[in-house]
Amino acid sequence: KQEVTQIPAALSVPEGENLVLNCSFTDSAIYNLQWFRQDPGKGLTSLLLIQSSQREQTSGRLNASLDKSSGRSTLYIAASQPGDSATYLCAVRYAGGTSYGKLTFGQGTILTVHP
Amino acid sequence: DGGITQSPKYLFRKEGQNVTLSCEQNLNHDAMYWYRQDPGQGLRLIYYSQIVNDFQKGDIAEGYSVSREKKESFPLTVTSAQKNPTAFYLCASSEGGVYTDTQYFGPGTRLTVL
C-alpha cells in the first residue's frame, strides 16, 4: 500500500531554533512531493513543491529535500518564529499503483514555536 | 483576487438530509478536487475532475456526489447514504493535464451532523 508517514506527530521548540520535519513514503516511483502549511480551521497553503528530478527546493527560511531512493523528505525551518506555529503536511504524488496521479497525504506534524 | 472560495464556512445537517458544499475558483484551472479531513488525520480524496463534464471517484467516494458543469465550479453533495459525514471538507484546484503541478486549496467547510 502506498502511504506517507510524518514524524514526529507534534513538536514544540523555543523561538530561534532550527528544526527539521520528516516525511517518509513507501514507493520511490513518484512525480513530486509537496509540503503544505495548515493553520487551525483553515485551508492548506502550499510551501514547496519538489519534482522527482530535483533534490531540494528553498523558499526564504524553508528548505525541503528529497531522497527518492530512501523514500524520505525533510522540511528544514531556520530561525523558527512563533508565527511558524501550524500543522505541516507532506503529500506525495505517486507515479504508479493504486494511488497513481493522486496526492497521498501524511497525517501532519503539529509545530508549536514558543517565545 | 485570484483564488478558491468555499461556502458556507460552517454547515449543519440533520440526519437523512442531503447538503451541497460550494467550491468556486477563478484561477482558470482545469482540475479540481474534493478532500475530507478528520481530526488528527491527513486528507483523503473524495472526487476529482480533470476537465469540465468529467470526474472520477477518489478513495472515499461512497455517499458523495459531484458535478462539473462549469470550469470554475465543482459542488459536492453529501447524501444521506454517507454514514459519518461530520468532517472538514477542502476543495482544491490545479492547472491539470500533467502530474507535476501544485494544488491550491480553499478555506474549507466544516460540516456537522446534528
Descriptive account of the structure:
The complex is a heterodimer of chains A (115) and B (114). Chain A has strands at 4-7, 10-14, 19-25, 30-38, 44-51, 56-59, 62-67, 72-77, 86-94, 103-105, 109-114. Chain A has 115 residues and is mainly β. In chain A, the strands form two sheets. In chain A, strands 2, 4, 5, 9, 10 and 11 form a six-stranded mixed sheet that branches. Chain A has a five-stranded antiparallel sheet with strand order 1-3-8-7-6, with no helix packed on it. The relative contact order of chain A is 0.35. The model of chain B has no long low-confidence stretch (mean pLDDT 91). Chain B is mainly beta. In chain B, strands 2, 4, 5, 6, 9, 10 and 11 form a seven-stranded mixed sheet that branches. Chain B is globular, with a radius of gyration of 13 Å. In chain B, a hairpin with a 2-residue loop joins β5 (43-51) and β6 (54-57). The A-B interface holds A 4, 31-32, 34, 36, 41-46, 49, 51, 89, 91, 93, 95, 101-108 and B 4, 6, 33, 40-45, 48, 58-59, 88, 90, 92, 99-100, 102-108, 110.
